[in-house]
Amino acid sequence: MQLISKTYWGGAPNTMRRRPDNATVDSLLLKSADRREHYGLYWTSRANPNPKTAIVVMHPRGDFSHHYVIPRLVEAGIGCMGASTRNPNNDTTTVHEEIILDVNSCIDFLKNQRGVKNVVLVGNSGGGPLNGFFQSQAKTPKGQRIATTPGGRRTHLNAVEMIPADGMVYVSSHKGEGMIMNEIIDPSVVDETRPHLTDPDLDMYDPRNGFITPTALDGTDAEWSRYSPAFVTRFREAQIARIKRIDAIARAMIAENQRAEELHADPDFAKLPLDRQREVLRREAFEPVMTIYRTMANLHYVDNHLDPNARDYGSIFSPRPDLMNWKFFGFGRYATPHAWLSTWSGVSSQANQLIDLPKITEPSLFINAGKDQEIFPKTDAEPMFAAIASSDKTYHSFDNARHYFEPEFGAREAPDVEKLMDVITPWILERFGA
Predict the structure, then answer these.
(1) Is the pTM of this model over 0.70?
(2) Do 193 and 322 belong to one domain?
(3) I need a surface site. Which of 28, 95, 276, 342 has the fewest CB within 10 A?
């Protein structure tokens, strides 16, 4: 059953469609302050091999080493670092308090090894909250930064020299992966271990609640549904309730590990029978992986009366979210307990743009895509822009652009990317030069 959006048929839609002209690229193995390694490509123009301004473009799990913003910026004389975090293409173990150290290693490399004066963080989609979380922590004095993850592990943030960026660009940025999960998780799941069990009163894909069921798998005959205000309120409250239930499961798993650690550390551990010692050690070593079923259930996918924009029916992943909700492909489907709490729980995660942006005073450019199927104007874009503390901040909306500014399926050119770069490139040059 082919349910994935055509956008993804030809590969990642965030990838450049052409290489920059007259450019060189260095393949880098970067090492973060906690000794973890990650990879990046540093693109520069042959006409300006030692630029004073460079950008970093990253995503918590996506590979942005060939991101579509790179060609035009390189051709304008701006260096471009497209990097992955330590968890490329798999966020099962992603802890945000750790991966912001990967952002820091990119800035450190550019400033201290390549002599770059100004670094601008470009955050596309999940890269926006990644950068916002990094910048808010980098601007916080050492000793006052976040000391523990939501799962209770000690962070390295107060022992690291963090270098704030000089400017921020947000493109189709959301509020945080956990904040996204708050709005897309299916609250009609009755039992996390029996994902087929469904509460019909909370099922947004049940016609009795207002859903109009398409018949074509590609969604071409889909009609917009309309949910009552009472259902919307009940649904949103139930989404948060499910997040809290999963949080409790994650914390119980962590507590079981911690109890085993305490038993192992007890002076009398060596007096225990060998089989009991072995059991304790296995419990201490065990790190479970949680499966989060049915995470494609945002009312906005099928009801365009909710926070209207020019979006197409469905999600960025599928024109049939009612069926894709049951597939493997989706947001946050696998996570360790620590990764769930740090990254995907909007109740527990500390990577939240509405908390981080009020700490950011550097020049900021905020770009909204008017046809975005995941980021919405009143729900997401406008509150985030309002939260930015900078006195030099600019909001620009492209009314007909999609989430990744991708063109129609099969098109070789991406005109919306070019329009986007007509805004981003001069904005950076006017403030920082090349």
Answers:
(1) yes
(2) yes
(3) 276
Residues 51/434, Cβ–Cβ less than 8 Å: yes
pLDDT at 352: 97
Q: What is the pLDDT of residue 80?
A: 98
pLDDT tens for 11-64 read 778 999 999 999 999 999 999 999 999 999 999 999 999 999 999 999 999 999
**Partners of 24 in beta bridges:** 44
Residue 295 and residue 11: Cα distance in Å, rounded? Answer: 22
Give yes or no: residues 216 and 68 share one domain. no
Main-chain dihedrals φ then ψ at residue 122, nearest 5 degrees? -105, 115
Q: Note whether 188 and 384 are within 8 A (CB).
A: no
Assess if residue 346 is contained within a domain: no
Distance of alpha carbon 154 from alpha carbon 88, whole angstroms: 23
Tell me what pLDDT residue 1 has. Answer: 58
The pLDDT value recorded for residue 408 is 85
pLDDT computed for residue 7 by the predictor: 76
Listed as ranges, residues in the chain with pLDDT below 50 are none
Q: Tell whether 128 and 263 lie within a shared domain.
A: no
Give the residue from 183, 166, 177 showing the smallest Cα distance to 133: 177
**In a shared domain, residues 211 and 65:** no
How many independent structural domains does the chain possess? 2
Residue type, 177: E
| Residues 105 and 207 reside in one and the same domain | no
17 and 165 co-located in one domain: yes
The reported pLDDT for the residue numbered 218 is 86
Q: Which of 305, 335, 365 is the last residue of a domain?
A: 335
**35 Rama class: left (phi>0) / alpha (psi -120 to 50) / beta:** left
Q: Which domain holds residue 59?
A: 6-176+352-432
Question: pLDDT tens digits, residue range 387-415?
Answer: 999 999 999 999 999 999 998 888 888 99
340 lies in some domain? no
- The per-residue DSSP string of 85-154 comes to -SSTT--TT--HHHHHHHHHHHHHHHHHTS--SEEEEEEETTHHHHHHHHHHHHTSPTTSS--B-TTSPB
Q: Count the alpha carbons within 13 Å of 61 in the hemisphere toward its beta carbon.
A: 16
Residues 142 and 201 in one domain: no
Give helix 229-265 / helix 274-285 axis angle, nearest 10°.
140
